[in-house]
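User: Design a sequence. Structure:
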């Protein structure tokens, strides 16, 4: 069996590659990327690295040739992803791939107001309609993305949010990668939708308390409206569309669209998932301004 991971130079894909290589020999692993030269180290271990660009359909047949299973990591090209993913799915099916594992978003349905939902949901539909076995991974919000909010909270003494009393189970990127690798190489997991979450649900008040506890700095929680939160992001340098998109995560939490608590990580890996406290502790020095954040 040969497995293939797309977008292999990205952070999630690099982590997933590491987990896959703990379970398969390098000769069974194919990585595709726009920048093969940036994966020279893993190529030196015997992994085949191929060029592919989802915006260049003619690059895809050779990229997917010989793969039995594909981990299709969602691209970051907001507004173009549905077309990109469709081209990749078509090429994978034409190459004879037997299963596609797709890294989607949690609750990618119309009930979720988060900005990424439309493209993720459309991609989910394309994967399900592909005619091959599939696994859709609805990834929760990355715990690491609370670190920049922790940096701001430490600097200002306040933690601003528009999530109300809503809850979500923040999940570490590494745990998402482990689930992606496990569902790619293991038997089973056919034609299923999995929520991939952390082990604990948190309100924003609890998140702020964890930031305060980990850093030793008191943090005041300030709840604001969606428009005020959008203004916060614009004041931080975001373009208006980007600011609205960023604020939509808080809206999604507030309306209960991201309140899933799933055992999938433990079911797939056999170990407990990282807690938000553990992730924040790992990045404590970054929140205190003692080192550059690496998230």
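Assistant: Done.
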């Amino acid at each position: 069996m040969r497995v293939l991971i797309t977008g292999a130079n990205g952070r999630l894909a690099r982590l997933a590659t590491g987990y896959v290589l703990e379970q398969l020999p390098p000769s069974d692993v194919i990585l595709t990327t726009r920048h093969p030269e940036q994966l020279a180290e893993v190529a030196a271990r015997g992994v085949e690295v191929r060029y592919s660009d989802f915006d260049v359909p003619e690059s895809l047949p050779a990229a997917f040739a010989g793969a039995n299973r594909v981990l299709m990591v969602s691209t970051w090209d907001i507004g173009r992803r549905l077309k990109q993913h469709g081209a990749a799915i078509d090429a994978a099916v034409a190459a004879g791939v037997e299963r596609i594992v797709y890294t989607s978003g949690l609750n990618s349905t119309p009930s979720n107001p988060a900005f990424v939902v439309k493209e993720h949901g459309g991609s989910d539909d394309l994967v399900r309609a592909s005619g091959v076995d599939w696994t859709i991974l609805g990834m929760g919000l990355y715990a690491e993305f609370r670190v920049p909010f922790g940096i701001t909270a430490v600097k200002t003494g306040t933690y601003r949010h528009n999530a109300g009393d809503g809850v979500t189970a923040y999940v570490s990127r590494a745990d998402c990668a482990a689930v992606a690798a496990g569902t790619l190489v293991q038997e089973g997991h056919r034609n299923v939708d999995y929520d991939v979450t952390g082990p604990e649900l948190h309100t924003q008040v609890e998140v702020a308390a964890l930031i305060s506890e980990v850093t030793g700095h008191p943090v005041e929680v300030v709840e604001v409206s969606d428009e005020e939160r959008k203004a916060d992001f614009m004041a931080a340098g975001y373009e208006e569309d980007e600011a609205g998109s960023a604020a939509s995560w808080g809206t999604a939490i507030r309306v209960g669209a991201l309140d899933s608590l799933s055992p999938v990580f433990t079911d797939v890996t056999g170990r407990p998932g990282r807690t938000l406290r553990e992730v924040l502790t790992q990045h404590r020095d970054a929140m205190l301004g003692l080192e550059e954040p690496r998230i």
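The chain has a mean pLDDT of 97. The first helix runs from residue 11 to 21.
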